[in-house]
Amino acid sequence: MCLEKAHLQSATLLVRLAPKDIAMFRFLLEAHAHLAYFTVLERQTALLKLSYPIMREAQVLKTLDEMAASVSFTVKPWPRFQ
After folding, report:
1. Residue 47 CB: number of other CB atoms within 10 A?
2. Domains of the chain
3. Neighbour count for residue 33 (Cβ, 10 Å)
4. Percentage of the chain surpassing pLDDT 70?
5. pLDDT in tens, 8-62
6. Which terminus of the chain, N or C, has fewer Cβ atoms within 10 Å?
7. 64 class by beta-carbon count within 10 Å (0-12 exposed, 13-18 middle, 19+ buried)
C-alpha cells in the first residue's frame, strides 16, 4: 500500500465508559492534539465510536492505555459485517 493511501485510511474502535466520564475522556483525548476523535453513539450507555488515522494506531493504543489510569473504560474492535 502506498504511503498516501495509508495516510487517508482510518480505523475505528468502540469505547464504553460511564456516562459521567465522557467529559473527562474528551479532555484527556484532546490533550493529544488531533490524535483521534469520537462520536457518541449512545448517550445513556456512553458508547463511543473512536476514529483515527490507521498510521497512528500504535500511538492511539498507547494513549488509551495511559488514559485508563485516569478514567475507566473498555475498548473493543469496530464490528465487521460480512
Report:
1. 16
2. 9-75 (3.30.70.920)
3. 6
4. 88
5. 689 999 999 999 999 999 999 999 888 999 999 999 999 999 999 999 999 999 9
6. C
7. buried
Q: Residues 6 or more apart from 78 whose CB is under 8 A from it?
A: 11, 12, 13, 14, 49
**What's the pTM?**
0.84
CB 70 within 8 A of CB 24: yes
Q: Please give the grid coordinates belonging to residue 4.
A: 498516501
- CB distance 46 to 21 below 8 Å: yes
Spatial distance between the Cα atoms of 17 and 8, rounded to a whole number of angstroms: 28
